[in-house]
Each structure stands twice: as structure tokens, then as C-alpha cells.
Amino acid sequence: MKKIDRYIIFKFIKSVLLSLFAFIGIFVLSQIFKVINYVTSGRMTTVEGAKYMAALIPGILVQVSPLAALLGGLITINKMASSLEVIALKTSGISFRRIVLLPIIAALIMSGGVFYISNSLQPKGLKVARELKRKNQIDEDEIPVEKKDVYLRGNGDYIYHFDYINREKNIAEGVEIVILTENFDAVKSIITAKSARYTPGGRWELDKANENKIAERTVIYHDIYRNSELKDDPKLFLTPKYRKEELSLTELKKIALLHRKTGGEAKEFEVEFHKRIAYPFACVVIGILGLALGSRYVRGSSAINIALSIAFGYGYYIVQASFEAIAMGGILSPLIGAWMPNLIFIGIGMIAMNKAEY
Asked: Using the 8-state DSSP alphabet, how is residue 281 labeled?
């Protein structure tokens, strides 16, 4: 690494760390009085209050890292531009892209760290914070004992619908099971029954069932209907309450699949899954904007550049929230909704970078 590269990267890392400490400090100040209230009211001990604050820090670190990368890039290049170092380097034949290469690589590495924190430390921290805050309340994450109006796509070529199911009693009421062809393109038969039970042998038995064979156009009555393929455990029909922000990527994918199988709404988990992957790259995307905006130094313009950079930074969050809402509404796929803000702002960053090559 050349001496000039070490000089630039040191200044960039220092500026990013100072920005991170400033944002975290603001967060701590905004939360400290709330924690004091929890402690004085007896809801937390002093130690628990400290743990609560520490548990929230990974989440705020993830949220402010893109802004820290933006301000870090802006401050670094702006200081170099104000001391005419940028002009001197360009005069010596070094392009602006070469000047900002290492800060961009550092921002990319920073994205990897943000990805790790958002997928590992943040979910655990949010769960710890919630448990500390609600330690005297009933756990809402347990699988419910019973549920009404449930669907499940079984492990075979069939779909269940129960008006009611109870996993402790292993019974169901208002039963309808649709058996389809292997490619799921046609219905073979529909079985209906008033009730069903899950036997110790791991099979469903339907009482007083009617089997409507579609192709034969016949209906067969069964006192007890048995089918060795109907072996899906009652627990699979009962989806617990999951908090998407407390789940890892693997868990988000698993829960989304479970919701689809049980007829639930999986969209929020799919959107969160793709957002969790796309968001860390914002450190690079809007970090490039900060580097480009800091390239031109005009006396008295530093404050304007900082204000413009912050506007772009918060603009990213607004655009991201907008596309997230659009994806939740089903207008865009979760994948496109998650990555579109990055594509928009990387385009703006490239335009700003080209203008910096004066």
C-alpha cells in the first residue's frame, strides 16, 4: 500500500468511527431517561437497565452505519479538497476514482460487518431487550394450543382446511382435504368430514367422511376414512407469533415457508429477508455519494455539502421505506423492492462521481 493510500484510508476510517460514536452517543442520550424511568419504577434493576441499553446498540449501529459511511467519506475528501490535496493529486495524474478507491473498499468491508451484525447480533439484542422490558408479561411466542380456519399444504399432493384444530387434544373440526394430481394441476378427490383425530400412530382419521372422486363423479361414504399419506402433525397447522426483526436470515426463510404452508401471510418475512441482504450495501452506495460530494471545495460551501449529504442519506431511508411498503402491498416482488433503493442511489452516486472528475 502506498503512503498516500495509507493516509487517505486512515483519515476515512477515523471520520467513520467519529461519526458512529456521535450517532451512538445521540441514541444513548435519547434512551437514558427512559431506562432511568424503568429502573426507578422497579421494572428493571440497574444491571438490567445497562443490559437493555447494550442490547439495543447493535440495532442502532446497523441503522446508522450508512450515514456514518456517507459523512466519513464527505469529511475525508472535503478536508483534502480544502487543503488542495485533491487538486495536487489530480495534477500529478491520479484520477479521483483512484483517490477514493480504498475508502470504497473499506465501505464494502464495512457492509460485510453490518451484514453480520444485522443477521446475528441485532436479532439477539432485540430479543434480549424485549425480554428485559416485558419480563413480567406472558410469553407470546409459544405455539398456540388451538386455532380456527387453518390451511396446510401437506407433504404429499394434498391440501388441508380445518375450521378448528386443537394440538393438545389432537382433534379437528370442519374438515376438508383436497387431493390433487402429482403436478398440482387437477383435483383428484375432495374429502369432507365433521371431525377428525390424529392417532398415536401418526395418522389422521376422519369420522363420517364423504369422498368425492372428481374424475369418476362418484361420492363414497366412510364411517372412518383412513389414508396413510395424511400424517402431518397438528403442530404444523399452528403458526406461533414471530417477530421478524428478531429472526436470522435462515429463520426468516423457514418461517416464510411455514406461513405459506399454513395459509398465512408470508410477505412480511420475505420482504424482511431480502431487505436484510440488500440494506448493508447502503454503506457503499451512499458512501460513494459522500466521497463525490466532498470533492469540490469552495469557501463557505462545507456546511452546504454536509446538509446535502445528510439529505441524500435520509432520502435513502425514505426511498427504502417506500419500496418496502410497495413490496408489502404485492405490487413489486420482495427481491426488487429490497434492491431498488440501492440501484437508484448507486446511479446517483455514479453521476456525482463522474462530475467529481474535473
From this structure: G
